[in-house]
Structures
1.
Amino acid sequence: MDTPARLRPMLRAAAIMLATAVAGPALTSPAFAADPIKIGSVVSATGPSAFLGDPEAKTLKLYVDELNKKGGLLGRPVELVLYDDGGDANKARTFATRLVEDDKVVAMVGGTSTGATMAMIPVFEEAGIPFVSLAGGIEIIEPVRAFVFKTPHTDKTACQKIFEDMKARGITKIGMISGTDGFGKSMRNQCLKVIGQYGITVVADENYGATDSDMTPQLNKIKNTAGVEAVLNPGFGQGPAIVTRNYAQLGIKLPLYQSHGVASKSFIELAGPAAEGVRLPAPAILIGDKLAANDPQKPVVAEYKTSYEKATGQPVSTFGGYGYDGIQLVARAIESAKSADPKKIRDALEATKGYVGVTGIYTFAPADHLGLGTDSFRMLVIRNGDWAIEAPAR
Amino acid sequence: MSEFLQLAFSGLTVGAIYALIALGFTLIYNASDVINFAQGDFVMIGGMGTVFLMAAGLALPVAALIAVVAAVLVGLLLHRLAIEPARGASPVTLIMITIGASIFIKGVSQIIFDKQFHSLPAFSGDTPIPVGGATILPQSLWVMGTALALVVALYLFLEHTLVGKAVLATAANRLAAKLVGINVALVLALAFGLSAAMGALAGVVATPITLTRYDIGTLFTLKGFAAAMLGGMGNPVGAVVGGLLIGLIETFTAGYLSSTYKDAVAFLMILVVLLFMPRGLFGSRTVERV
């Protein structure tokens, strides 16, 4: 188009006016009789944490659609306002402000990483809007903040589960070999904090760099330490797979405990035959089809798996499950509060008792905004290249 | 004693991998004064290529061969498209170009392969061989054997073939080499191709032990570079000794002192050596070019 340059701004203004005139009435005449209830979300759907954020975003969209198909909440449609922070905590904070000030959401489900969550917390705390985080770090809920909740287990829960199992087997002295990455460090610290309650002592405490390719020296040291009855490896990524292989190479016969950080099929593939007999805590979703028929989580896990896999064509993951529980908790809170007022939603969230989710069974309390106990983890053992539920040790 | 043996086996295995990468550095440095920071990425291409070709149904030797050839092609392209057009530039500029190339290779690999860790089955099984109370994996023998074979082959090539001597001549004095009729550009391309092949081979034999991912090259580049510096940049024997030394220092520190100081002690050793022998253990070429 050869419109003279000075005319262009005027044309643009006219176009915008026209568009508003057309779109305006459409926006204010909803399919439902009332205004939508707006739920906000900021996740890392792209960037380095995309393997976490992408299933979360898909799950949130899927279940908000599902809610609307069932008639919404309180007779009003639900609108999901979703932003992608690309793994950048600064961006997450900007989007959080936008959700509060421009979009005027009544609740928030999101925050893929602990970093992004911590950056967004002040915004929601100040505005008094409930924020259900999908990140793992324990600092999100310790100390308890009035408006902040979270759905994923913490590494503390995993430590407790592992130590419960060790205690039941009469193990009192263990060796630890931890990764020095964020995950390994944090879990090691949490484990050392709670280990005393189980009467277990760490007699060998080794560590390795996240990119190391050989852990035999450290394991050899543990092997030669007198009295070690089991070995625990808090770690994430390829480290635990190499530890497991080196463990087999050195012919160490003691039980090896891995963390929930490696609870995925790729760990079994990477560690190969050496993974046989390795024990680890994992959420129910990993073994949905192997759960007992009377397990309360079985139908929930099965429904989520079927819906997610049908809608996206991708295998279900633990991380999407966090998103599922987040949106369900908020929806239930809105229903039971019979109100879309953020303060009332918060009170109803805190009063949640026995919600059966994909990740576990949640019961919040004023002093507990995670609401998951060690029963949200299942103790698994790797047998014949697959997960098996370990019979409760007695 | 068994503990000492165990640590020694472990250190020699890791060290042999470092040594192979250091050799790749040496070859390119000798021919062009460039320190090729994409060296570790050749290792990654070798490993990842083999993993994906095997997943496509090829047998290990065929997959490995194709992966090595692919790495050589990448090496030649790196020379032709990135180094050759900037041939008048200073070595520092060229080094920066290789860093850029390394980032580029990682980016493309993320798309061609994926972002997950992968492994290869061990060539001769996973059953550890007991030796004097310690154990060694058959794959470790493969790694050490490959390193030894490549060192010998490289030595024979450089010292006993006309082409090898042309490489050495180019390293000694590029202008003089040109004057006596050596095709310097061809020698450079050859050096890139050869060191890519060595890196990729190291990747193939090391992957069953170290696992591989698109970004694993950075780690190998750093360790291999440290090994080459310790041994004396440009000296093949130094590269091998440097690699083995760093591997052994790492494992003995982790085994006898504390795993926390493992990397610190290794790098401290390098600093100390370079302080007293600035050209590394075997760096003998002290004549400055003018």
2.
Amino acid sequence: MIELTIDKKKVRVEKGTTILKAARQAGIEIPTLCHYELCDMGIENKPGGCRICVVEVEGRRNLAPSCITEAQDGMVIHTHSIRVLNARTTVLKLIISDHPFDCLVCPKSGHCELQDLAVQFGIRSQPYVGEQSKYRNDTSPSIIRDVDKCIMCRRCEMMCNEVQTVGALSAVNRGFMSVVAPAFEMNLEDSPCTYCGQCVSVCPTGALTEKDHTNEIIRALSDPSKTVIVQTAPAVRAALGEEFGMPAGTLVTGKMVSALRELGFDYVFDTDFSADLTIMEEGTELLQRVSGFLKGDTNVRLPILTSCCPGWVNFFEHNYPDLLDVPSTAKSPQQMFGAIAKTYFAEKIGVKRKDMIVVSVMPCLGKKYECQRDEFKVDGNPDVDYSISTRELAAFIKQANIDFLNLPDGDFDDPLGESTGAAVIFGNTGGVIEAACRTAYELYTGKKLEKVDFHELRGMEGIRSATVDFNGVELNIGIAHGLGNARKLLDEVKEGKSKFHAIEVMACPGGCIGGGGQPFNHGDSEILEKRAAALYMADHEMPIRKSHENPSIIKLYEEFLGEPGSELAHKLLHTEYFPKSNEVTIHLQG
Amino acid sequence: MSKKITISPEAFEYMEKVTGTDGVEVRVNLPKKIIEQINEICDSFDNDPGELINVLHEAQNQFGYLSAEVQDVVAHNLHIPVAQVYGVVTFYSYFSMIPKGEYPISICMGTACYVRGAERVLEEFTKELGIKVGETTPDGRFSINCLRCVGACGLAPVVLVGEKVYGRVSPDGVKQIIDEYKKADGGSC
């Protein structure tokens, strides 16, 4: 331990602690901009580039960037002397001097950390006038890059390379010409980007934002010839409230349903319904593969990988084109919902496919790309027309002048709104595989599962493993969240060293609750934990907690699909994967 | 890891869309021999990602410039994202993605040459050839680069064409130098 003085306060910290962390431990807040940390997940960005966090250290000639300067024994530090405040203001004005002045119409307005600092520092003039960087706008199906608004904090680069190991983004060029861009400054769409959206979730400014589809939805809602139905993903209900000032972890399922109804959706349904459906299909596939394996069938590919997460699907299509037969062929819940809505449900209510618009509300940006994939279209008409994020829905509700906080609780419509506790935990890392275990156990053993909660599958560690006892048969389950962690498990599979029978992967740290479309967490990992706890609570309170017991699912199979894995189920609920060579020009042999 | 590498022609498709910051089209063909050459370079540095700059140095020494494909193969061998390789290539002004001309013109911008009017000489070259610093004429014959002090300050301002040194160059003499090489080819531009 060392002792130092910060703003006349004695502080004792571990050796190796930065001044910034030492100050925070003492309850002294130092403003930062490029610094970002999700400490529980080992995620930290501190290039020391922005110099907003400078402090005065007695006996040192220049000011010290507190995020990268180690605290030393006996240091005397001033975090808000006049010299420090002046320096910070100058630094901020210099950053702003190369930033567009279109705050009023910027998609990040109100959530921008640069704007917040300008407010906090009381910036009222811009003395540094000169040339500003100009770069082309890059719009992909999920993410928009407006590089002129980039302040080179390099958080996105850290997320993309270190956490996700996707390697789509890197800082390129030098000095005034510096930008964060894909290789050869190609468009994001042509790069190995998986659209996980983690770059967007950490970008402090409007440089990286989601592709907004609210206007298309407003157009559909105002067209009387269209029946517009909406589905909401599990993780949305655990985070939407934050956008309205509610504490993290507040479940707002009922208010969300009411808000969607007020917005004018004809039917408010639940992706949880199709999450249950996913379990029926994926669980059946898991059982088929595992039973085959146990019977000694050597053609069976194990482990089976979950396939709910579009970022993850893109990732293995890019990076493991030789392992495309390993993931489950089951579509994601979003796409299963669309496929059932535009067939089974459209027929039930007598609406033609072309007159039905399916909207999804997702914690995710990858879903925007997923719903545009060609294999999810019938004669060019997509199963899911538009996908908006939790943040976009919140903005939409505000735009419509709906008093969200005082809305009464509404209920989902039938039949695609009925769901179980197994479905709602899809939003948490480990949730999909837990839901699958609940159903697979009962289908495999024919016995009732006494202990519904699989605590061994829960938690926030990046890679987890557990053994689940299926009446004497031990299944090894692997769980990874964050694509960098997934890569480790996949490399084992590739080398034939994997001990797992089934692996769940979610691209985003924490699972969907930490998705790229969720309200910004600003590096507060407690927020993720509270959202996760909220979903487990929702599961706990559900009368039915196993997917195969969902009455609407049972009815769907009876009336329409037959049984899990049937020909029709395969046509509507399963998909295939396509290699996307990342290392564009190269194929290794031998 | 970097043993036999083959290039699939259809994989080049996206490359054709690629342009650098200057809007320069990047070449798309890479013969097998070149790939083997890159592999050798990477092997000589144990395919260590920490040696990226040295690998790029050597590759540029051998090829004269670093095409997108060369960067791709390097990234692959060193197991790093190609975006990162491109980031390094574009950060250091020494590295170039544009092939040098048949007659590379280097203008010294060292202190002595600078104060004796190197900037005006450079301006004259860019005007005469219609290209900027770091670029190559469309016919591939001339390219312009700047360098720092060649150790001939007594001759300032100094211009190099290939390895030939021209001293006390004035803006008026620029056309004459260029014509010398145009004539050497026996053609006119």
